[in-house]
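Q: I have 357 residues here and want to know how they pack in 3D. Can you give me a structure?
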Amino acid sequence: MTLNCGLPVCLRQAKRRRANPMGGKLPPVVAAARKALSTATEPGEFVLVACSGGADSLALAAAAAFLNRKKSLRVGAVIIDHQMQQDSHVVANRAAEQCTDLGLEPVLVLQVEVANDSEESARNARYAAFEQALVMSGATRILLGHTLDDQAEQVLLGLARGSGTLSLAGMPAVRGPYLRPFLSLDRTAIEQICVHEAIDYWVDPTNAAPKYLRNKIRNQLMPVLKDVLGTTIPTSLARTAILARRDAEYLDQLAATQLALLEKFTDPTTLVLSIPALRELPDAVRGRVLRAAVSKLGAPSPNFERLEALETLLFGSKSAGPIQMDGNVQVFRIPKNRSIRGSVAMLKLTKNASTRA
């Protein structure tokens, strides 16, 4: 079976190897996929599989269809047509047919407009469509087909950014209505599931495009890492993500508790924090408190360089500020008022007048 979509590689055929209808042992990867999905969801809940027509999402759709047939879940699907490739609607419609054949209902196909050719713009458009699909269908969750290999690549992307523990934590298994039940399964397992289910899947030709950093990591860096460090390196990186997320979430909880104790709003756009109290906090917690305080005023979380500038301001630089944050937030150091007993130096965070207007 082929698709006439004008792309270098359109469809990869799975050999017809369905389980013996008279019985036989279920392949372990299929059992693992079904168990992972069952564990990640609540019995009877209504979910949508986000399906691109690729191996990952169709393997997920097949596992979800099994639970749908058992009445353990109610399962539909949503297919996003980004309209970024020639005849993308053909691929989207084929994916919709496959989901319908699996017994998923409803199956939504939504077209989106992508502002430019960047991965970020496509992602933003896709997730906006996911939100629309939840409203249209009444479903409570979206299932995403990211795998252990995707997670390993995400850890390397975070390492390249150098933005702290959370950037090494990769993708969360659960975030809001989004579930990633296949983060423990690698691409080899996914392809084995497609073989078992006799699913023909689309291979996105842009996955080979070197202009995207993720593709460079997947196609250039990861083979070298496997050759030098061993073929289990994706598993090790995915394990790192689990451990890093646990640490990051715990530290974020500590920081949120400390911020709640320290913060004082003098007005809706101005927040002050005790400098002596901030100085007493452990470095890892203090940095998170400062980032959270900036974000509370509606600004993006400060990067490493701006956080270092805040630390310098906090520990007594000659200048009292301001330090300019993104999002029109400025930070000043206010000396203690010696005429007032018990007064302490304060860190003052405030929005610019242009933001308040």
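Q: Anything worth noting?
A: The longest strand covers residues 74-81. Residues 9 and 205 are 6 Å apart (CA to CA).
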